[in-house]
Amino acid sequence: MPRTSERGGPRTRARILEVANRLFMENGYDAVTVAQVAREAGVSSVTVFNHFPRKEDLFLDRAGDVLDLLHRAVADREPGSAVVDSLEAAALALIDDGNALTGYQERSLGFLRTVAASAALQARARAIRGELEVALRDELVADPAFDGDARLVAALVVAGYATLFVENASRLLDGEPSSDVAADHRLRLSRLFDALRHGLADGA
């Protein structure tokens, strides 16, 4: 196919993502190469890697959104408000917005099936979880208004939410109605943050 300009910046990135997602979901992640994605998108493999350092990042591309969410929840919270309260509000907003990061949106079934079929994607997802924990810890350490245990809060928040996401996705893949999963998610999310709120020091 004709080559497109490789200077498109965000447009090039969006085109690469569109092509990669289609190829991965049609053929399976492990069966598609970066070279195939590049060829279909009309760019070079070098351009693909300039935008996405790892092949896995072509599919698991929402980590940046989560990093932004964590940053805003900590840095932009109201003066005097607790971090756990702000993080809970951010998680509840994902529900209200119908965000795929809840793990139970029916439109995400193709994505979830693709991840479930690839050990490489699952390994990268676990690595991203670790990166998010470190990022949240660093946000809390840098926040002069936070005087709790940054490492513990970050570990519990990220692990707790990741557990809910994975269980939501598994239930959806098993055929449970998304409405049932959604109702349980809101309830369990409340339990998670209540446990964090009452089990951590006041500084959290």
TrEMBL record:
Q: Does the keyword Transcription regulation apply?
A: yes
Q: Can you cite a GO biological process for this protein?
A: negative regulation of DNA-templated transcription
Q: Which UniProt keywords apply?
A: DNA-binding, Transcription, Transcription regulation
One Pfam entry for this protein is TetR_N
Q: Which positions does the record tag as DNA-binding?
A: 33-52
Record GO terms (molecular function): DNA-binding transcription factor activity; transcription cis-regulatory region binding
Domain HTH tetR-type residue range list: 10-70
Q: At the top level of its lineage, which domain of life is listed?
A: Bacteria
List, alphabetically, the InterPro entries matched: Homeodomain-like_sf, HTH-type_TetR-like_transc_reg, HTH_TetR
Would I find rRNA-binding among this entry's keywords? Answer: no
- PANTHER family named in the record: HTH-TYPE TRANSCRIPTIONAL REGULATOR BETI, HTH-TYPE TRANSCRIPTIONAL REGULATOR RUTR
**Could you tell me what this protein is called?**
TetR family transcriptional regulator
Q: Which organism is it from?
A: Frondihabitans australicus
Q: Could you read off the lineage of the organism from its UniProt record? A: Bacteria, Bacillati, Actinomycetota, Actinomycetes, Micrococcales
